[in-house]
Amino acid sequence: MTLDYKALGLRVGLEIHQELATSHKLFCACPPRLFREEAEYTFLRRLRPTQSELGEVDPAALFEFQQGKAILYEASRETDCLVEMDEEPPGPLNPEAVDICLTVALMIGSRPVDEIHVMRKTVIDGSNTTGFQRTCVVALGGEVYVEGKRIGIEQICLEEDAARKTGESGVLHRYRIDRLGIPLIEISTEPVIQSPEEARKVALAIGQILRATGRVRRGLGTIRQDINISIEGGALIEIKGVQQLDLVSKIVKYEVQRQVALLEIRDELQRRGVRREELREEFIDVTEVFQGTRCRVLRSSIKKGRRVYALRLPRFAGLLGRELCPGRRLGTEMADRAKFWGRVSGLFHTDELPGYGITPKEVAELRSAVGAGEEDAVVITSGEPQRCVDALRAVLERAAEALEGVPSETRGPNPDGTTHYMRPRPGAARMYPETDVVPIPITPERLERIRSALPEMPEERLSRLMREFHLNRKLATQLIDSDYLDLFESICRETKVAPSLVAVTLTETLKSLGREGVKVETLDDETLKQVFISLDRGLMVKESIPDVLSWLANHPGSTTKDAVKALGLELLQEEELWEIVRGKVRENEELVRRMGLRAVGPLMGAVMREVRGRARAEVVRSLVERALKEFLGK
Known about the structure:
The protein is α+β, with helices and mostly antiparallel strands. Strands 1, 4, 6, 7, 8, 9, 12, 13, 14, 21, 22 and 23 form a 12-stranded mixed beta sheet that branches. It has a 4-stranded mixed beta sheet with strand order 2-3-11-10, with no helix packed on it. The chain has a 4-stranded antiparallel beta sheet with strand order 15-16-20-19, sandwiched between helices. The longest helix has 28 residues, at 245-272. It is globular and about 100 Å long.
């Protein structure tokens, strides 16, 4: 689908969330790292929404509460304390984290506030043990430029990261609190982005500035984008927690497609004359229709004593199956709501039936049971009676929203760039003051100290990389965009390995290994650096780098020496290599006599195939040339 984003009035705003590399968490002395072992202890909580100072309850918080969740928190004594458990008041705001935020603010021309006041933001989805997230505004305004266009910054905030979800079973949700409290910077742009690709470029530009500080954490999950998207006549949609930069443009594109399709469905419903009062709460038990069904899902549910309920949607026929964006339909959106509100496994609708083992005869009987005509759609679900009713009530509400067009809501990303329903949009009632943390004044002396030591901006560093390390623009840009820029410079200054080889390894080779399924995220800076130190000391050859990295990724805590030994890549002694070279000359005697000294190339290839990873190419060439001269008597 080709879309004219300007004509559609597309407006996109980004909220970039990046974990900061500090020595401890935001409000306690615990180290900011994750633990991989079994939890040392757990505790169970149920969170409830609270009224704001004006007596209002945030709709997003109310939604989460109505899910009836129980949260089992997992903790470790190494990474968590009573602050994360909400059994002890928070400590002072981490000054390191404040300085990093102020550094970013000054880099992009943002105006630091005179005094930082910590606020509480209601969040009761389980990701915070307190039922709220602590956040504070550090600076206002500022700008970044993308291809000459000014992108305004609304504000820069400092907040605590949330606990990480590890699983769920029914109403029981499991979270680890090791990530809870890690300092997080949030940069919000003005909603002036006008295309999917521009959104990706803005996210990249802000990410480059953050990495330029050298004070941000790396790895999947340490940076996340929230994307706010709207079009003319549509609604503001917030898409939470996009972790991959390459998904940003696709998510914007698909969300625009979704909103355009929903507006078309609205217009079609208006042409059909569908009115809100026709959508009635008439939830009918149709279990008898499916007593002998071949549909595996319904048959299994009925055998367990559950029921099948149906809902008629007048004059909705053909619209539930209409595609909104790849793989997503209006029926899919209704299923999302049904799963959340009714905790059912899913639903069927007549736009996709007969199918899934449901026969034309059963469809006809279903229509008859609910009084549906050919223009009507029928939705069915199966489960406990109350759950079915709750699920179909949510479907009915989503059908009513379809009459208006695009409902304003918070959605989550899917791996393919589409999105799913998460919860209603939050309101202003979710924010209120934090009374346990004293305000922090931002003095002129502190700002001057930070301003005098600001890091290079990405464009300045790009030019320096090309000049100082003789890299081409492509390689230098890849480094700027990667998480390994500081490591690259450190390796180049500590070894004599060619900078281009270091750059290619840290960008292209690691990315290629990741695509092949190698867990490159387990390779920390010190491990990567030791590979190049071993190369510099002649303990391995550059051709073996991918194999060594793959082995180290699968054996965390091991050394380069361990990898070289395990892979059988110890360098051959010159005497052993000399015998191999002489043997290859004898094997190719006819070639040598025909080509003379020009046989270096073919012989080099033959030797390297045999000793690949165990000898340096320059040493092999030297020995091949020597062996040829000896054989030819020159």
